[in-house]
Amino acid sequence: MNWWRIPALALCLVLCGGARDPILVPEISQHEIQVRQGFTGADLLLFGAILTPEGNRAAGDYDIVVLLEGPARAITVREKKQVAGIWVNASSTEFRSAPSFYALAASRPIAAMVDGKTAAIYELGLKWLQLSPVGVIDPAEQKRFSDGLVDLMRRQGLYQQNEKAVQISGQVLYQARISLPSSVQTGTYTAETFAVRDGRVVASAITRVTVRKEGFERLVAASAEQYGFVYGLFAVIVSISMGWIAGRLFALI
After folding, report:
1. What is the pTM for the complete model shown?
2. 105, 142, 176, 246: which sits with the fewest CB atoms below 10 Å from its CB?
3. Beta partners for 190?
4. CA 72 → CA 9, 78, 84, 102, 149, distances in Å?
C-alpha cells in the first residue's frame, strides 16, 4: 500500500467537503391574503438567502428560480368555431389537473440555466408545464389545446413568466416580486425556490401563502357552498325583484 497517498486523500476529502450543496432560506412578504370587496390584486415579495448548511455564505455563483402555483383544478378548454357568421363551441378537451395560477421568476433565461429534461422535471416555465388531459388524445391536438389554455390564462394574468425578475445580491440574498390579479382563486399557494448551478438544481425550498375571502364575500361563498339550493333560489328572487323594480321605475318616467 502507498502510505504517502493517505495525506493526499485526507486533503481531498477536506476540500470536497467544503463544496457541499447550499441550502435555501426562503421567506414571503405575506403568508395570508384577504380578499374583500374591492380587492384589486396583491404584490408578493419572495426573498431569502443562499447559505451553507452551517449558515455561512455559499461559495460559487448560483441562479435562482421562484415558482408560485395556485390550487390545481380540472379545466375544460372549448374551441370556438364560426358557423354561418355565429361563433359556437366546437371540440373540447378536459385537463384533469391544471394550476389555477402559475408564475415563474428567474435570475436569467431558463434555457441558459438548464437543459430541456431538467426544465421538464421541475416544470420550469410555461413551455414545460405538465397538463394532463382526461382520456386518450392525439399528441398534436393535446399540444394545441394546452397552448390555447396557457395563452388564455396568460392573457388573464393568471399565468406569468418573467426570466429577469429575480435579483441576487452578493450571491447571498435574492428577491423577486410576483403580482396576483384580482381574479385569483382562493386556497393555498405554494412558492418553491430553486438554486441552479452548472445546469442542475442543487437546492430547493418551499413556503406557502393562503388566499381567502373575508367579510361579505366570505359569507356569500360559504352560503353558495353549504346551502346551494337556498342560495340559488335567493339569487333568482333578487334578480326577478330587481327586474320588476326597474320596470316600474321606467314606467313612471
Report:
1. 0.75
2. 246
3. 69, 208
4. 50, 19, 37, 10, 14
Distance CA 46, CA 85 (A): 48
- Would you call 96 helix, strand, or coil by DSSP? strand
Which ranges of 183-227 would DSSP assign to H, the alpha helix? Answer: 216-226
CA distance linking residue 22 with residue 125, whole number of Å:
23
Distance (Å, whole) CA 80 – CA 162: 30
Look at residue 244 and give its three-state secondary structure.
helix
Q: 128-137, pLDDT tens digit by residue?
A: 998 888 877 7
The overall average pLDDT reported for the chain is 82
Q: So where are the chain's domains?
A: 21-214, 215-253
Are 118 and 124 in contact by the 8 Å Cβ rule? The answer is yes
For 44, residues 6+ apart whose C-beta sits below 8 A from its C-beta are: 28, 29, 30, 68, 177, 178, 179, 180, 191, 209
Fill in the amino acid letter for 77.
V
Q: Which CATH superfamily is domain 21-214 in?
A: Macroglobulin (MG2) domain (2.60.40.1930)
